[in-house]
Amino acid sequence: MVKPMKLVLLGTGGYYPSQRRHTACLMLPEIGLVLDAGSGMFRVRDYLATDHLDIFLSHVHLDHVVGLTYLLDLVPADVLSHCTVYAEAEKLAAVREHLFAESLFPVVPPFRLEPLGDKHSLPNEGTLTHFPLKHPGGARGFRLDWPDRSMAYVTDTTATSDADYVEKLRGVDLLVHEAYFADDHGDLPAITGHSCLADVAKVAAAAEVGVLLLVHIHPQLERDDDLELSTSRQIFKNIEIGVDQMEVEF
Known about the structure:
Helix content is 18%, strand content 28%. The chain is α/β, with parallel strands linked by helices. It has one domain: Ribonuclease Z/Hydroxyacylglutathione hydrolase-like (Metallo-beta-lactamase, Chain A, 4-Layer Sandwich). Strands 6-5-4-3-2-1-14 form a 7-stranded mixed β-sheet. Strands 7-8-9-10-11-12-13 form a 7-stranded mixed β-sheet, with helices on one face. β5, α4 (89-99) and β6 form a beta-alpha-beta unit. 44% of the residues are buried.
């Protein structure tokens, strides 16, 4: 029997932390991989299971990178020395110049900053690929494939069933996708580069994924009831709401 892989949701909110949700951060502990480094990053220490960390950034808006400043006190020095942060080259330059500007944060952690390659090898014969998302300043989505399972992570974009990135998600077992807005907000999703729940369900249905897991939820939506799922489940049945420290096997 194939052993499932565990995904831990360390931060499931967007923009700023709330009483219930820290900002974007997901972790696959058994392979030492982190997706985004929002304020939920402080929880990495509790799940650390490897002697290294590979952190992949979808983009570098503050709610996705502030956790990089936590690393000095977060993980042992030997792990930190084997920590690599991956993002688009111009995004890494912004992190180096601005987030770690001496007047803001005078000690730069000893991690490496590496531009995203076309494809990254993962343990257990896995691969990570990425694709562009429409968002102010630009963002990337990620797909992770192994011979026996797959997942994708899409955040900070405006979901539409005909978006270019839908084909990149085709058939994944688990789609982790932002749902910042609970319902229709007119032009606001397109203006802000975020998604309404019903449109995310349409993406999941169009891409024929296995399970849709919602993250990057508006910080003022403090209850699961605020994300009313009955209508969206008529579009796509297998929807779950992500909450901080939720563990998902796939």
